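so my prof wants the structure for this chain in the tokens format not the other one, which i didnt know existed until like an hour ago. anyway here's the sequence
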Amino acid sequence: MGIFKLTILSSLAVTFIFAKVDFVNFSDICQKTSTQSCKNNPLEIKAIQYLLKKKINPNIEINGVLDKPTKDAIIALQLKENIPASGYIGRNTKDALNKLLYGHRLHDKKIASKEETKEIKKEDTKSQKVEKVASKKVEKKAKIAKKTIEPKKEQKVKIASKKPKTKVVKNEAPKSTKLVKKSSKAKVAKVAKNDKKQLKVAKKNLKKVKLAKKESSKVTKKIDKKVTKHTKVALNKKGKFKSYEEFVRSVDLRKSYAVYQDPKLLKKAGGRNTLLKVDISEQRVKLVVDGKIALDAPCTTGSKHKLEPNTRTYRDKRTPLGTFKVMEKIATKRSNIFGDIYKNGKLIYHGDRRKYKGSWKGVKFVGAPLKNWMRLTSSGIGLHASTHVKRYPGSNGCIRLLPTVANTLFKKVKPGTTVKVVN
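here's what i got, hopefully its the right format
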């Protein structure tokens, strides 16, 4: 059952089942225009999509992409919460998502991010100033009360001395002084009570700030634990599943990062009994040995509409379908097409070198790293390791693999091994 829960965590890490999530700790999400730059973590987008699907639009697809339905739902939420309806998921919008999930905002006072620690310090200094001002007020009012009491006493004594000395005067004089003392003490007591209330309010504000700091740190720790659990499931090297059938039943192949390995079959791989199968619909690569699955892992194939950052145009970069052979294997290779162009040590261009329109004099091209390269076509399509493996097509045509998976396949595959790319 423990293994089953771990696999569910990897595929449904965005459903808020096992821990309280604070959206403010997520990175900003946007369309990545020329004026915007966001990380757009697919897992975080899925978490937001899952909430929007439940609360706003049930037709939203949980795909980890900021598509039109997702953006429309975000704009609707922004209009409702009086936030500028730009579709940009910033701090205010993320706190509005907290309100949508829990019924109230988690950050009425801005204390969640590092950039906002200055505001916390300001609140602390303000509360200290309030305490000082309150204490000064108490002292001033006490002095004023004492001054008002003393002249009243003198006046009463003078009036009593002028009047004839009778028993009635002797009895009334001390009574009048007692009444003055009581009224002055009551005034001082009231002033002191009001000031004490102000001090209590200031202390409560300080406590709230400290508690909020602790809560934010706890939430970040929970998210870190969740991420580490997800990566452990995604890099399931030791093959904890008894059979491939059990793996398929336990894991959503289209969405999960989980990896299946059969150590016994992997030992037999490397000859004519071995072939690779890349399934574009599932975005997974499978190593088949003697007709059985020895390894099944996530991969990323070419995108239908890939944005070129320099030309600002979308091009069809889909991975070609068909049967291919491994043409070459290079452990440490760099791309001859995609990379960076530097001039005098400064980056002046990033992307397809064939689209570069500047002068080549005095410039240097550095190709993108393609570790554990396995070529399939002469036009530059192949399999290689990457740290940008997504659960949807997103490459320039090559097949991206998790580094550990690429290392395993590189050892088991030989030049001439058959590779089938199917949809």
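also thought this was worth mentioning. DSSP finds nine helices and 13 strands in the chain.
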